[in-house]
Amino acid sequence: MASATRDRIVEASSELFRRQGYTATGVKQIVAEASAPFGSIYHFFPGGKEQLGAEAIRHSGALYGQLLDLFFVPGADPVAATEGFFAGAAATLRETDYADACPIATVALEISSSSEPMRRACAEVFESWIAGAAVRLAEAGIEAARARALAISMLCSLEGAFVLARALRSTEPVELAGAASAQAVREALPARHVSRGARRARG
Amino acid sequence: MASATRDRIVEASSELFRRQGYTATGVKQIVAEASAPFGSIYHFFPGGKEQLGAEAIRHSGALYGQLLDLFFVPGADPVAATEGFFAGAAATLRETDYADACPIATVALEISSSSEPMRRACAEVFESWIAGAAVRLAEAGIEAARARALAISMLCSLEGAFVLARALRSTEPVELAGAASAQAVREALPARHVSRGARRARG
Complex ipTM, two decimals? Predict the structure, then answer.
């Protein structure tokens, strides 16, 4: 029961941080969303909101990282997997009225200059996503250093597309970022993929 | 004098929002930074912090949009201009200890689900940047619809690179996003550019 309360606090915090950021989310709102007693925050998180914040970032990061597995299944075409991942992100944005984008980007921008423990949590999550995508691109035949560089570029495209999509209330940036990322994957694949990809992409 | 005070308030707000976001920035901190009397905020901005916020977004957006002109000068190679723009952003990040990234992205993520006037201000700024970049890419010979799509992809890459760079305290994402964007520009240019670009990019 105690552990269930703790989990609900972390989950409610993750969701509130994603939608409105860290600063705008008060402890009162967190306990209300989590149906938890006020004092439970300081019972479970003696370091207060900052400790809870770092844990919520890691929690969201681990969940979101698993989404890669939905698209990059063993043997999948990495170009199609990339297209599918971005299309899934666009669909989620539409379905949630542009609220559910990256679970940690808002917090990352807010606190990078002010909270070193939370900045480090965000950095760990981004590094884990980069490593996860790089492994899958390398499995598709892309040389390791290039796979890592490509994973970083793709994550930049996705994160920026979320910023624009939320402000513009349009999924067009996500769709264009997905097409650009799929094209970059196509170009990085070994030759047997490139000739097929080139036929689809040029013209 | 009154107008100078108003300008200082807008400029101080823009700088604070860029570094720490909208929610974390209090009116007290704004008047302190602007060396303005407390009541002057409500004198100049009867709509309060939200009105000031929307104006600060438009102010920052207009200033930042002018940066394009530093790199996309008439007759410039658009590939080199793209590389230069991202390299300039990376240098600014390093020089400011990763504080000065996009002036409006933090606010855009924070308020897109909560303040319609500020979301609209962010959307106008992003649209103006997209239009500005698209015009310059079209002047370089890229067909108009493709130039707009490319401008959006490039802005996604830049915005996401800022998110990652601030969290990771590294300019590597900006450098990789710049290389990917330059490559996309190279591929979109008419044939006489592509052959030269292809020689530099492949291999």
Answer: 0.90
